[in-house]
Design a protein that fits this description.
With about 350 residues, this protein is an alpha/beta fold. Helix content is about 40%, strand content about 15%. Helix 2 runs parallel beside helix 10 and helix 6 packs across helix 7. Bound molecules: adenosine-5'-diphosphate and 6-O-phosphono-beta-D-fructofuranose.
């Protein structure tokens, strides 16, 4: 008989906790490509286990406004390939207040939501943790293009966003080389430099500027641009992380100091849109389904992650306390490849 190589059987053969009958799902914070795949997985995994599913529109804002709809398997047809989030998303100030959190928990109870899947970033998880403390079973699924969630090596949307940015930067490079210019290209990432670092390596940038880099000094950057020209390079691409920002002024200062024509391009929200990559569709599907499985196992106040090649889950408090750093080694490699 052929050997059975399937692992993790116990994860899906677990009996469903009697207390879980209806699962709610919302997306919160910035949208990210792949969120739809996660929503679809939550809905279909729950339905396949005989549960009811409720979708909450516009994140915590919609929860507080009771924008709650029933979701069927057909409601999530034809969305896995679409960017954005069909449930829409929002940022919601009231959810940060105790009053807002209590109201949100009461609404979950009113609509019979026994378990809530929150797809978003650290801020959204903080909200989920508050709800868990108020008796709503919650599981977080990491969704952000910034990759800035410490408990996981993967976040929904990063792969698509970094590929979108990479393609755009290739195009800027074509024109920059033709004119022998210097280009400052700003990528998103909030306070984190992952998008910048990955694009920097993937696009063969001459310089990567990230908020995590402690020793950034514009004077040495300008000297390097001059040296680069002497070395016979036709252009100078700087990938500047949003956390450093100021790209327009930086370009003006570089041009004034070097005499080399310099242009700034801020890629902006185009990085957040578009059809998700295969990786984002697959990982988001697994994570969404796993969130349902965890709720069915009676777990709450957990966040799903991907660490060292495995899908895992952590206590939200533990996850939020973790620190994430940029790989010094990877950054040094990027520098040495830019000569
Ligand atoms: P992300 O989830 O991508 O980190 P935000 O930081 O904007 O995005 O958070 C999304 C939403 O989560 C906020 O608009 C707010 O409603 C909620 N939230 C953020 N921080 C907290 C907190 N400390 N307590 C409760 N809710 C929070
Ligand atoms: O967190 C995702 C992100 O796109 C960040 O990279 C960026 O700083 C922020 O959201 C932009 O937010 P908004 O869409 O509200 O301008």
């Amino acid at each position: 008989m052929a050997e059975n190589n399937m692992v993790d059987k116990e994860r899906y053969l677990d009996e469903i906790e009697d207390s879980i009958r209806t699962i709610g799902v919302l997306t919160s914070g910035g949208d990210a490509p792949g969120m739809n795949a996660a929503i679809r997985a939550v809905v279909r995994r729950a339905l396949s286990k005989g549960l009811k599913v409720r979708g909450i529109r516009r994140g915590y804002h919609g929860l507080l406004k009771e924008e709650i709809i029933d979701l069927s398997a057909r409601d999530v047809s034809d969305i896995i390939q679409r960017g954005g989030t069909v449930l829409q998303t929002a940022r919601c100030k009231s959810m940060r207040t105790e009053e807002g959190q209590q109201k949100a928990a009461a609404i979950c109870k009113k609509y019979g939501i026994d378990g809530l899947v929150v797809i978003g970033g650290d801020g959204s998880f903080a909200g989920a943790q508050k709800l868990a403390n108020l008796g709503v079973n919650t599981i977080g699924v990491p969704g952000t293009i910034d990759l800035d969630i410490a408990c996981t090596d993967y976040t929904i949307g990063f792969d698509t966003a970094v590929n979108t940015a990479m393609e755009a930067i290739d195009k800027v490079r074509d024109t920059s080389t033709s004119h022998e210019r210097c280009s400052v290209i700003e990528v998103m990432g909030r306070d984190a430099g992952y998008l910048a670092l990955w694009c920097g390596i993937a696009n063969g940038a001459e310089r990567i500027l990230m908020p995590e880099e402690q020793d950034f000094d514009e004077k040495t950057l300008i000297e390097d641009i001059m040296e680069n020209k002497k070395r016979g390079k036709k252009n100078y691409i700087i990938i500047n992380a949003e956390g450093i920002g100021d790209s327009m002024n930086m370009a003006k200062r570089i041009e004034a100091a070097t005499g080399i024509e310099t242009r700034a391009t801020i890629l902006g929200h185009m990085q957040r849109g578009g059809s998700p990559t295969c990786k984002d569709r697959v990982y988001a599907s697994v994570m969404g389904a796993m969130a349902v499985d965890l709720l069915c196992q009676g777990k709450t106040n957990r966040v799903v992650g991907y660490k060292d090649g495995e899908f895992v889950d952590y206590d939200i408090e533990e996850a939020l306390a973790m620190k994430k750093t940029i790989s010094e080694y990877q950054y040094n490699i990027a520098k040495s490849l830019a000569i």
